[in-house]
Amino acid sequence: MVNVVIESSTTVDPDRGSSDPIIAAIDIGTNSIHMVIVRIVTALPAFSIIAREKETVRLGDRDPQTGNLTPEAIARAVGALKRCQEVAKSLNVQQILAVATSAVREAPNGHEFVRSIETELGLAVNIISGQEEARRIYLGVLSGVEFNNIPHLILDIGGGSTELILGDSHEPRTLSSTKIGAVRLTTEFLANNPVSDRALSYLQAYVRGQLERPIDDIKANLQPGEIPKMVGTAGTIETLAAVLNLDKNGQVPDRIHGFKIQLTELRNLINRLRRMTVAERAAIEGISERRAEIIIAGAVILQEAMTMLGMQSLSVCERSLREGVIVDWMLTQGLIEDRLKYQGSIRERSTLKIAGKYGVDIPHSQRVAELALSLFDQTYGQIHTWDKSIRQLLWSAAILHNSGHFVSHDAHHKHSYYLIRYGELLGYTESEIDIIANIARYHRKSPPKKKHQNLQNLTKIHRTIVSELSAILRLAVALDRRRIGAIKDVSLNCDLATRECHLTFFPTDPLDACVLECWSLDYKKPIFETEFDLKLLTTRG
Q1: Residue 525 near residue 475 (C-beta atoms within 8 A)
Q2: How many Å from the N-terminal Cα to the C-terminal Cα in the chain?
Q3: Which of 31, 186, 268, 459 has a Cα at 20 to 30 A from 304?
Q4: CA torsion angle for 471, 474, 475, 478 (degrees, to 10)?
Q5: What b/e readout covers 441-478, taking b as 16+ CB neighbours within 10 angstroms?
Q6: pLDDT exceeds 90 at position 86
Q7: The pLDDT of residue 184
Q8: Are 102 and 161 within 8 A, CB to CB?
Q9: Is the pLDDT confidence value at 297 over 50?
Q10: DSSP collapsed to 3 states, 198-237
Q11: More confidently predicted of 319 and 82
């Protein structure tokens, strides 16, 4: 029997009559589902928090045989999300941004769970990668902590994963996500309470082994003489800070943002807590019953990270992933132009970084991307109505469509799919990365087919996006067949009455007949014609 723990808090909204948008961000984690509701203050730009909601649902209690999310955990999550929607509606929320992390992205039925949420509740949930989770945590901390250009180590201990970030308010120097979390490690290593010396030692050794690589990466990215500060976020760290900072009356402080955790005090607390039963821990002010079950594993992660990094203390930040989701939304809306401005181009920079990693012919890919976007823009409202966010997916796919050559020329379109799909593109959700990978996958050879395994996790609308944009990408690839920029511009106009589409291309060199490009267009256009039910007619301008 699982007891569901619900916590909520609402502050008075002084700008209730304001026209500024009210946005909610939901974090579907391994241990809990959190929601924050904010009013976006567009004039600053900034946001003010109106309400917070938290419900412990333990999605991480997965089937030990299959790794699937269990029906019981799914039911708890659906109930919690429905209640979040009700709260959001009562506070006039205009948009809900929901992301799912470790438990959902690792579960074999994670995508099925997300689809069921959309069907049952009408709530779109985006699964994000570990690195993308770390990036958004960084954005959330930046919104609540002044870095003053000093490097900061950010540690976020979740139920299923731990994120470590090094940044100084500019570009993050390192982003890592490691599969150690309070729920995961409790399940795997701490079956008995109190915790024995042997079990504790084994857990500590395991955590050190898992943290070694990301911490080595952090140390390699610190400049000689730099002395970083450390910031901790999320439930485990907030609980530990609350217990270590009980006031003289034994009460938990109302707010723990900025409170300190000293390594020596943390070690003493771990030794004290691990000799207790779960019930005894839960009796301590500041530790809930559900947190009492997993607090030892989370505290050990914190202790080992601080020890390995040589940090004697850290400050608590109450902002994390949820607030980072809000900041990321503000960036995509063009509302932020301050110290976070660089983040606005994260998608472009991440795409180009991966292109460089796999030796992509950048000038060729950029020409293909320009041609693809031109075709996309000219046919908007005629044969498609996809918005700017979908346009950017096409751009990334065009830049990376030939990345599979890094593996082999043969079937390179299939290799491109895998390199993109598992290449940790930042700024995109898992479903968006899947769409990009599939658009690139179908720039040549067979068109998308339902039987293809790589399409199985896509929703019907996402499959439509892949089919239509890959057809457009095929034409763009044909237009730069010789990879010399032979065609400088195109004009495309569709007559829906006659079901004809007229494409006029303009050579860079007026004397160039562009014979190979014309042949390639004729070869590739049938899939475009079938997809849009149009006859494509090409002429030289």
Answers
A1: yes
A2: 72
A3: 31
A4: -170
A5: bbbbeebbeeeeebbebbbeebbebbbbbbbbbbbbbb
A6: yes
A7: 92
A8: yes
A9: yes
A10: HHHHHHHHHHHHHHHHHHHHHHHCCCCCCCCEEEEECHHH
A11: 82
